[in-house]
Design goal:
Blueprint: E1 2-10, H1 20-27, E2 40-41, E3 48-52, H2 59-79, E4 83-85, H3 102-116, E5 122-128, H4 132-142, H5 146-153, E6 158-159, E7 162-163, H6 169-174, H7 189-202, E8 215-217, E9 223-230, H8 235-254, H9 264-277, E10 282-284, E11 291-293, H10 294-304, H11 306-312, H12 315-328, H13 331-340, H14 345-356
Antiparallel strand pairs: 1-3, 1-4, 1-5, 2-3, 5-9, 6-7, 8-9, 10-11
Helix pairs in contact: 1-2, 2-8, 4-8, 5-9, 8-11, 8-12
């Protein structure tokens, strides 16, 4: 498993800062590692940057890598006069800047306001699969649980200077892209590839890098890439996402496909519910299709992957982490608590930058 995290670049005062090209030039001088992942990479806007971990099997190793990646990225950003903040959206009114890249400029021209306003940061989890057919089986199995993963990660309650009333407004902004969101079950790799080909033929996606499904086959690695989560404020919450995704994948491989899969239209409503209230209200139970308290639905997820977590020795850790998230709240809850204490936009970002580094 591995994790990719996108971060806002901000000034020391807490304002989004279009300095990614400088940060990436500085990062190019860092020692290289031959293993996949681990690099600082560009994102769509100059006010953000992405860092990834190397593949690993142990959660302690993954947590160390997530913390190290955040620390390295922040250290390089400081050389450019910036900091990083793990926030799904910036709270400020900001005119974000597309990176100086031909593809990015074509996306901006083709997708208009959706591209102009696109300044969001997510957490992407990769889990290894044996082949594309196994990967599609995992993707189909994940469909019912992706909304619960989003609720645990929700970390974007503000947008363009306003409180949104959502725990994850990033997911609402991201949903504007034509290929984003929940998918119907594919069944096999051939069907998955046929759907991708049809989307590309339609011209509504520039290339396969713009296939923004909640979960997809990675174009770079032999993995399933789960893209539903906000970037997590706490580094341990990012690792929780990875461990749960791996457990869901292991559970999928051990089980047959759902004989009555939930329709994509229904899944979109579950995702909206998770984005709206996160872990503080109700979520839709994947087992009953009815609203239940978020803590109960999260418990359903842990029960669903119980055997996989026992096999890897991660059950107690997951239970403790889930209890902690439900007790202190996800990133959205923490941001709103700072607001209640009197923090303005700049102060919220500064506090987020501090928590980003643990």
């Amino acid at each position: 498993m591995g994790v990719e995290e996108e971060f806002l670049l901000v000034t020391p005062d807490g304002v989004p800062y279009a300095v990614a090209p400088t940060v990436l030039r500085l990062a190019a001088d860092l020692p290289s590692d031959p293993r996949p992942g681990g690099d600082l990479e560009k994102e769509f806007k100059q006010e953000q940057v992405e860092v990834s971990t190397h593949p690993c099997t142990d959660l302690d190793d993954l947590l160390a890598q997530v913390r190290d990646g955040r620390a390295r990225t922040d250290a390089v950003a400081r050389q450019a006069g910036a900091r990083i903040a793990a926030m799904g959206t910036a709270p400020h009114v900001v005119e974000s800047t597309v990176i100086p890249d031909r593809r990015a400029n074509e996306i901006r021209a083709r997708f208009g306001q959706t591209a102009r306003e696109q300044l969001t940061c997510g957490c992407h989890v990769h889990v290894a699969v044996a082949d594309d057919d196994e990967g599609v089986h995992v993707i189909d199995h994940l469909r019912a649980w992706n909304a619960v993963l989003l609720a645990l990660s929700a970390n974007s309650p503000s947008w363009l200077g306003s409180a949104t009333g959502y725990a994850s407004y990033r997911s609402q902004v991201w949903g504007r892209w034509p290929t984003a969101g929940a998918t119907a079950p594919f069944g096999d790799a051939a069907t998955y590839r046929a759907v991708i080909a049809e989307l590309l033929r339609s011209g509504t996606a520039l290339d396969d890098g713009m296939i923004y499904f909640d979960a997809r086959l990675s174009a770079r690695y032999p993995t399933v890439e789960v893209r539903v989560a906000d970037v997590c404020l706490d580094p341990q919450d990012a690792v929780l996402q990875a461990v749960l995704v791996r457990a869901l994948a292991e559970t999928a491989v051990r089980t047959d496909p759902d004989p009555a899969p939930v329709r994509a239209e229904i899944l979109r409503s579950w995702t909206w519910r998770a984005a709206r209230s996160g872990t503080t209200g109700e979520l839709v139970s994947p087992t009953t299709g009815e609203p239940r308290p978020a803590a109960d639905v999260v418990a359903e997820l842990v029960d669903h992957v119980h055997d996989a977590l026992v096999a890897t020795g991660e059950l107690d850790w997951v239970r403790a982490r889930v209890a902690d998230v439900l007790r202190r709240g996800n990133g959205a809850v923490q941001q709103l608590a700072w607001r209640a204490e009197g923090a303005d936009d700049d102060a919220v970002v500064r506090r987020a930058a501090d928590v980003t580094l643990g």
